[in-house]
Design the sequence.
């Protein structure tokens, strides 16, 4: 199931079955590992691997554990221990994109614990796709509580087996079903809006379109003076797309690319194609070509249009190394429900980064703040008279499950003093824990997207952290 060092493009959907602790302090033990390799371009299963695992302490397999997954001590007594399959599992997972349901809070943690018990370094993923987070954000709760059993019942896929390989294949099938449903919904709405657009073309409309978007910028490709997005129109109540972050798109026009991705104020994740990609798509500011930056405009039902910033016809994502944290998380920023808005401030010491962000700011302001009713908040903050004043604010998106919320940013720590330099994925379960990591003066490698917003009379570009690597000594 492995591949060469230079061919790790597959996505690994994986799942663990474990014992269930019955008292405080009792550890989990892995009872089964299962995974499939998926081609990200064709979404087909390429290979699979699964095995039962014998825990060192068979007494951990209690009645509660057996009720959960049906795995008994007799079934695993002659099976390999985790140390005996560790190399195989490492080869499958290392350097690939990991996918699974609730893997960030459970399976990734259990894997790290298992490797720590045998004094081994755990695998490092190229990226992670937690389908619980992704489907909750994009498909919504139309299927109920978003547990795998509920999603399977919604699509008529039968009962969840609670066995690793069966659950992995069910998870993969659920993702494909959700994507198909939302693709069809988006296509139906697009057809409706195309029909509307063809009926609303007139000399007057053409004149208005020319005068509205006749803007230029020396470093950014402007829209054609004869193109502009139509006004928002009424439509049906189609659900947002699986890989949308907000209301459904009516129509989108761009100079060089048509895309159905849109960003809203409260959340940020990737599109389907980008979700099955990796952080190599994040570019260094010095590699950005100003002439290759474009903007797409997407009008929405019952609301202002949104824009997306592209670089070489793909959504712009930036990677900056060793950014110094100026201010950590602040409890004074909360949303309408009283939940903390997780963001922190870093020094923008790179002149290239500042120039790029301010250029994007200039063009975005002309489209996001279309009616001039919103106050524009510059993405780069400067204080006159201070040499080291330029700063930017990085936002950490969160997702809610029942009464709890957790962040969806991949967070790693990097020990620069070790040879070779090592990275480890962290599971951050609370705001206090996150705040203890993002200390003023610390260095962080930041991977972020540029998400324009126009919300409650405030507008600007939000820098949404997709991945953070915190430096430790």
Sequence:
């Amino acid at each position: 199931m492995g591949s060469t060092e230079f061919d790790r493009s597959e996505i690994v959907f994986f799942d663990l079955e474990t014992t269930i602790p019955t008292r405080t302090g009792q550890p989990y033990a892995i009872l089964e590992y299962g995974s499939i390799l998926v081609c990200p371009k064709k979404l087909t299963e390429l290979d699979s691997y699964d095995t039962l695992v014998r825990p060192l302490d068979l007494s951990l397999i209690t009645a509660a554990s057996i009720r959960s997954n049906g795995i008994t001590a007799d079934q695993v007594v002659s099976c390999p221990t985790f140390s005996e399959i560790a190399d195989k599992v490492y080869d499958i997972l290392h350097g690939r994109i990991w996918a699974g349901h609730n893997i960030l809070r459970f399976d990734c943690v259990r894997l790290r614990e298992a490797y720590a018990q045998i004094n081994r370094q755990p695998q490092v993923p190229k990226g992670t796709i937690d389908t619980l987070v992704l489907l909750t954000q994009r498909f919504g709760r139309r299927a109920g509580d978003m547990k795998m059993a509920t999603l399977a019942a919604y699509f008529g896929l039968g009962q969840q087996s609670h066995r690793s390989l069966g659950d992995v294949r069910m998870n993969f099938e659920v993702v494909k079903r959700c994507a198909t449903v939302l693709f069809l919904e988006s296509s139906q709405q697009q057809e409706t809006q195309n029909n509307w657009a063809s009926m609303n073309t007139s000399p007057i409309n053409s004149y208005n379109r020319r005068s509205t978007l006749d803007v230029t910028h020396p470093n950014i490709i402007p829209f054609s003076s004869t193109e502009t997005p139509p006004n928002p129109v009424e439509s049906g109540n189609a659900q947002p797309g699986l890989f949308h972050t907000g209301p459904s798109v009516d129509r989108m026009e761009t100079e060089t690319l048509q895309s159905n991705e849109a960003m809203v104020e409260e959340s940020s994740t990737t599109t389907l194609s980008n979700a099955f990609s990796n952080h190599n798509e994040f570019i260094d500011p010095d590699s950005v070509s100003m002439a290759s930056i474009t903007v797409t405009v997407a009008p929405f039902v019952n609301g202002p249009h949104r824009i997306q910033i592209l670089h070489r016809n793909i959504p712009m994502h930036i990677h900056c190394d060793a950014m110094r944290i100026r201010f950590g998380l602040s409890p004074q920023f909360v949303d309408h429900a009283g939940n903390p808005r997780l963001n922190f401030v870093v020094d923008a010491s790179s002149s290239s980064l500042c120039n790029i962000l301010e250029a994007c700011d200039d063009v975005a302001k002309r489209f996001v703040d279309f009616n001039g009713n919103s106050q524009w908040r510059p993405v780069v903050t400067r204080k006159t008279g201070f040499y080291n004043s330029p700063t930017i604010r990085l936002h950490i998106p969160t997702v809610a499950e029942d009464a709890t919320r957790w962040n969806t940013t991949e967070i790693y720590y990097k020990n620069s003093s070790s040879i070779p330099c090592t990275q480890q994925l962290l599971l951050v379960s609370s705001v206090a824990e996150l705040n203890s990591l993002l200390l003023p003066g610390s260095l962080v490698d930041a991977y972020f997207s540029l998400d324009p917003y126009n919300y409650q009379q405030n507008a600007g570009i939000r820098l949404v952290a997709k991945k953070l690597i915190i430096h430790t000594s």
